[in-house]
Write a structure and sequence with these properties.
alpha/beta, 2 domains, Aspartate Aminotransferase, domain 2, seven-stranded mixed β-sheet, 15 helices
């Protein structure tokens, strides 16, 4: 029998109830600021809206136009400019739908079949899908050399490889990292187009907590707006300077994305204007991760030390890695935490660290996690991992989630 409307609604209600009694500890989930604004934007859903401001002659010359959308086009153009300003960029666009879509659209717009890309590999903390996407587009993928002892890119070996291979692009797509790795050394490299994926760092870059990759000489920065930045399901790209490459990028976006998906763009713009919320969020994000890491280690949880990666001067990220080695041991730990409603990632860790758990504080911080909650959270995690009784731990998680909600940055109900 096909699923019924009632079954779907019941499933949603049950999931909502469970999530309210859970603590989400992954670095790719967020509790978006848009929850207070969705009631204002719903009427736009399903409408084709352009983000291009055109005069009458340009509208007449266009292949297609939709009536009554001029005000929305002006608003979306203003939101794109706001995004660029917040990131010290010359221009930006939110036409993109998700991070991997942004990657594919960028290289489809700028690269030619046979071009070469020097890429941060999955082993080095890059996204596990990126190489396959680039190869499917007909590009030749080379991997940035790694310093496996220090869990980082090897800059000297990379410079030599750049001089020898002369790639058309350098793409730093860091999806994993205990520290915000410094790539300023790439500024001295001339020739390739340099692209940085900031999906895990955009909120910190926007508030000045992390240095801006555009200041390191990257030409383009792309990112999702629903990971480290607590926004809607959306992605964006900004450019360091205007010119032919950016013109090709915009032309490619027009070809590859038929609608600007305006509701999400408006929600992203409204989130960008939540300065107080964003500052509070970033101020909590990394300190709670560092404290949780410390408290877990003191309780015997096999946390990968942050000091193992890169330079001590590099800022910490909101990621935490727990290393188990064998996949069955890591998966059992993952399942035990899921049983008490603590949500983490089970995955293979980079740099040949084998299998483990990946934690992050993005969703939990918006939900109310502060330093005063970390001790209890660490107790529950540690006790669960060594076999504590599930129902009692689940009740402690629910109680902690209720306590955290009093300090939540995001209001769950509409304002007004």
């Amino acid at each position: 029998m096909p699923i019924s409307r009632e079954e779907l609604l019941r499933s949603l209600d049950e999931q909502r109830t469970q999530l309210a009694e859970s603590i989400v500890l992954t670095p790719v989930d967020s509790l978006p600021f848009i929850l207070t604004d969705r009631h204002r934007t719903g009427f736009l859903h399903g409408l084709y809206l352009s983000d291009k401001v055109r005069d009458k002659d340009a509208q007449q010359a266009a292949v297609i136009q939709f009536g009554g959308r001029e005000r929305a086009a002006r608003d979306l153009d203003a939101i794109h400019k706001l995004l660029a300003t917040r990131l010290g960029a010359a221009a930006g666009s939110m036409r993109l739908l998700a991070g991997l879509h942004a990657q594919a659209a960028t290289f489809m717009s700028l690269a030619a079949i046979g071009d070469s890309v020097l890429l941060l590999s999955e082993e080095g903390g890059g996204h596990f899908s990126t190489a396959a996407i680039l190869q499917r587009l007909g590009l030749r993928v080379l991997n940035l050399p790694l310093d496996r002892e220090r869990l980082r890119v090897d800059p000297d070996a990379a410079r030599a490889m750049l001089a020898d291979e002369r790639p058309d692009f350098v793409f730093v797509d860091r999806s994993e990292g205990l520290r915000y790795e410094d790539f300023r050394w790439l500024a001295e490299v001339e020739g390739p187009v340099k692209v940085f994926d900031a999906s895990h760092y955009v909120a910190q870059i926007m508030t000045g907590a992390y240095e801006n990759p555009l200041d390191w000489g990257f030409d383009l920065m792309l990112f999702t707006l629903h990971k480290s930045f607590p926004g809607p399901q959306k992605a964006a790209i900004v450019t360091r300077e205007l010119g032919p490459a950016w013109d090709r990028m915009l032309a490619g976006l027009s070809l590859l994305v038929s609608s600007s998906h305006a509701e999400s763009s408006y929600l992203a713009g409204l989130a960008l204007l939540r300065d107080d919320w964003l500052n509070r969020y970033v101020e909590r994000l990394v300190p709670t991760a560092l404290l949780l890491e410390q408290e877990l280690r003191s309780r015997g949880v096999p946390v990968v030390p942050r000091t193992a990666q890169g330079e001590a001067s590099w800022p910490a990220s909101h990621h935490i890695w727990i290393r188990y080695g064998a996949p069955n041991v890591a998966f059992a730990a993952f399942q035990s935490l899921a049983a008490v409603n603590i949500h983490v990632n089970y995955r293979k860790l980079p740099y040949n660290l084998e299998w483990g758990l990946r934690l992050g504080t993005s969703h939990a911080v918006s939900s109310g996690l502060t330093a005063e909650h970390v001790g209890e959270l660490a107790d529950v995690i540690a006790e669960t991992l060594v076999g504590a009784e599930t129902e009692g731990m689940r009740q402690r998680v629910a109680a902690l989630a209720r306590e955290m909600a009093r300090d939540a940055i995001v209001a769950l109900e509409p304002e007004g």
